[in-house]
Write a structure and sequence with these properties.
By secondary structure, the chain is an all-alpha fold. It folds into two domains: 3-50, no CATH class; 57-108, no CATH class. 73% of the residues lie in helices and 0% in strands. The protein contains six helices and no strands. The N and C termini lie far apart (57 Å).
Length: 110
């Protein structure tokens, strides 16, 4: 669970404001988590009964951060469920690039 998920859980289950959450001592938040491990909040139970699973926003955030940091999309998209299928082609291209680099090095040294 990351900070955003933790804050969302606490705010939803307690009705606290963001300011109240920010002012809460960390041990109190840990106490809540410990209690909820045995007695989940109503919204968590309702979601489980309805079969609703949390979405994985982490992959989207990581992809967005990568694109912002590098100003380009990944060569192989690890955020794509089909990424594993791309691996053989990616490996083939990497081997070809390495062969080309060695040829250039050997041509430059002669």
């Amino acid at each position: 669970m990351n900070f955003v998920e933790l804050r969302g859980l606490v705010l939803t289950a307690t009705g606290w404001t963001v300011e109240q959450f920010n002012d809460a001592p960390l041990p109190a938040v840990f106490d809540l988590l410990e209690y909820w491990a045995e007695h989940p909040p109503e919204h968590v139970i309702a979601a489980a009964v309805a079969g609703i699973k949390p979405k994985d926003h982490k992959k989207k955030r990581e992809k967005k951060m990568y694109e912002q940091k590098t100003n380009k999309k990944p060569v192989i998209n690890p955020f794509n469920p089909e990424a594993e299928a791309q691996l053989p082609e990616f490996a083939r291209k990497a081997r070809q690039m390495e062969r080309d680099r060695r040829l250039q090095e050997s041509a430059g040294s002669k």
